[in-house]
Sequence to fold (108 residues):
Amino acid sequence: MNLLNISNNLETYLIIGAFLFGMGFYGLLQRRTLIGMLIAAELILSGASINFMAFNRFLAPDPTVGQIFTLFIMAIAAAEASIALSIVIAVYRNYRSIDTEDIVELKG
Fold:
């Protein structure tokens, strides 16, 4: 089997995207620190972006639709990362920990 034939297959990209999404979802459920949860959320968004680009490459009649969705996901990921990091810094300043079990007593 040739490597070029594998890279020209929609299923290859969908498997990679599903693997990233699954790793991110598992990480989001298993991580106890806020930074680990942030990285897991980024993996989820990366998996979704790969799937959009794969469908764009192989199935879409207009090639710009998947790219626009991917750029939108990248913008959301950047905004989410900056806001989440500022929240993590604020939590650390107040509680001296970023462990989610230590900040359970937060009141809304």
